[in-house]
Amino acid sequence: MTAVVRACPVCGSDNASRAPHPYSRPPWILKQCQCGMVYLENPVAYSALAREVPWEKTFSTETKARRGKHPVLYRAARAPKALWQRLLRRDKLLSWVQRYFAFGPVLDVGCAGGHTLERLPHEFVPYGIEISAELSSLANERFASRGGRVVQGDALSALRQFDSGFFTGIIMTSFLEHEPQPQAVLTASARTMAPGARLIIKVPNFASWNRLVRGGNWCGFRFPDHVNYFTPARLAALLASSGFRVLRGRIFDRFPTSDNMWLLATRRAP
Fold first, then answer.
1. Cα first-last separation, the chain
2. For residue 27, is the peptide bond before it cis, meaning its omega torsion is within 30 degrees of 0?
3. Are the C-beta atoms of 227 and 178 separated by less than 8 Å?
4. How many Cα neighbours within 13 Å face the side chain of 153?
5. Higher pLDDT, 218 or 68
6. 244 CB contacts (<8 Å, ≥6 apart)?
7. Which residues contact 76 (CB under 8 A, 6 or more apart)?
8. CATH class assigned to 30-267
9. Contact of 185 with 129, CB cutoff 8 Å
């Protein structure tokens, strides 16, 4: 697998001379930039993500390893989330889409097999971008029946295939932590958004209490497919530098005991 050496994805600083972060897992090297961003310095090339180490395979391998190494902690970490979902009986993503997106074409960047947009009402036309060849084929079958389609490839290249102002909303859930060029992808996404369109983001929260307690055993560490480790401040800074304005990111959208955080944004006016 070919690795790519990169600078900080938020401020662009070259941190080659800095010592690896203690949570590195050789050969995968984490760096902490002077701006505070923690990121994987040597992610694999896009070509490897398509077939050699696609997300669906690395996720399954990592999950089995965690379950085997820490079975009690694994179950304990999942129990509160499952209970919370049962008590609320609420799908946060579906709720946000219906509340903040206008009807029309909606894009899921990193759509996997298409199960997320498949749940949306038929007033939304599903489009997707997915680098895994196998998953993109599954998603395309789902979306084609509703007038949409999936572009297989890396996000930056795929976004160029869509017209300016085409989408009424874009979803990036469990995506930006995987993307080696998040600023370029966000900037390209802004071009494809109609006036007033919204962007929904969900990523692991590097500032969560669970990460502070569990250290290098935190569930948010996934090598080599997680390449960006955002705190709320670093994610907001990235969006600002990419042409977006944050509309929502309340305490309950990034509760300290949760491993994830949610954020709603829109394009800044020219």
1. 41
2. yes
3. yes
4. 8
5. 218
6. 186, 190, 199, 265, 266, 267, 268
7. none
8. alpha beta
9. no
Instruction: Produce one character per residue of 177-212: b if its CB has 16 or more CB atoms within 10 Å, e if not.
Output: bbbbbbbebbbbbbebbbeebbbbbbbbbbbbebbe
- Residue tagged 């040597």 (tokens): 42
Q: Which residue has the higher pLDDT, 66 or 25?
A: 25
Global pTM reads 0.87
Q: 158 pLDDT band (50/70/90 cuts)?
A: very high
Question: Smallest Cα–Cα separation from 96: which of 252, 259, 267?
Answer: 252
The helix (H) or strand (E) run that includes residue 265 is strand 260-267
* Segments making up each domain of the chain, as ranges: 30-267
Concatenate the DSSP letters of all residues of 180-211 into one string: S-HHHHHHHHHHHEEEEEEEEEEEE-TTSHHH
What the block records as the tokens of 168 is 């009424």
The token duo for 113 is: 């097999």
Q: Which residue has the tokens 């489009």?
A: 127
Is the pLDDT confidence value at 207 over 80?
A: yes
